[in-house]
Amino acid sequence: MSAVQRHRVIILDRDGVINQKRPHTVTDMADWEAVPGSMDAIAFLTEADYTVVVATNQSGIGSGRLSVAAMNELHAHMHTQVQQAGGHISGIWFCPHRDQDDCDCRKPASGMVEDIIERFSVDAEDVWLVGDRLRDLQAVAAVGGNPVLVLTGYGRQTLSEEGLPENTQVFDDLLAFAQYLIQQHEAEESEF
Ligand SMILES: [Mg+2]
Ligand SMILES: [Zn+2]
Fold first, then answer.
1. What's the average model confidence in pLDDT over 31-51?
2. Within a domain: residue 3?
3. Is residue 15 part of a domain?
4. How far lies 1's CA from each of 7, 24, 49, 72, 190, in Å?
5. Number of H helices, E strands in the chain
6. Which is the catalytic residue, given 15, 132, 136, 173?
């Protein structure tokens, strides 16, 4: 029996996963530096027919440190870099709010993840969220998806924190996760 490949969605946190975190809000191109291997990781996932999207907390918008126009410019730059590596990002979800705004999209709230699940009509079990903070893992665990912690950005610090969701998987970086996932699913699908 040849199984139709399941639709799988990989949600990436941005800062600390795709690009290096900064001690301040990433506001312009000079701040933009890819995490080593992240462009290749997105390309491999794209090539293997995963849908790759981004979900990012950008409270700098709510607090006035970042304009939507500047963020869009950064994201255009990110799209270009990803495309040059052979990858594709199918959408970028962002939360512009601050903690005190009490919205349902700022991670650890799961609003962005729920929206992505609905947009791509995918089962939560076929959704992974890769992040470097506890709140990333919580946002996807809350809806029954797969939390993945990478040790880039704040990842090493997060690993030492209490309260990681039980099914959290840990990888050195996005590239290590992408390689593992693709290999695992290829092995599963060749069993049929
Ligand atoms: Mg992050
Ligand atoms: Zn929000």
1. 97
2. no
3. yes
4. 18, 52, 20, 45, 10
5. 7, 6
6. 15
Residues 148 and 169: beta-carbon distance below 8 Å: yes
Asked if residue 4 belongs to a domain, the reply is no
Task: Assign residue 153 the CATH number of its domain.
Answer: 3.40.50.1000
Q: Is 102 a catalytic residue?
A: no
Ligand located closest to 155 CA: 1
Of all residues in the chain, the percent with pLDDT exceeding 90 is: 88
Cα 18 to ligand 1 centroid, rounded to whole Å: 9
- Mean of the per-residue pLDDT values for the chain? 95
* Residue range(s) defining the domain that contains residue 107: 9-190
Concerning whether 31 is annotated as a catalytic residue, the answer is: no
For the full predicted model, state whether its pTM sits above 0.90: yes
Give the CA diameter of the chain. 55
The mean pLDDT value for 138-165 works out to 97
**How many structural domains compose the chain?**
1
Rounded Cα distance, 104 and 114, in Å:
10
Cα 106 to middle of ligand 2, angstroms: 4
In a domain, 1, yes or no: no
pLDDT at 4 over 60: no
129 Cα: distance to centroid of ligand 1 (angstroms): 11
User: Looking at residue 189, what is its pLDDT?
Assistant: 81
Residue 72 Cα to ligand 2 midpoint, Å, equals 17
Closest listed ligand to the CA of 107: 2
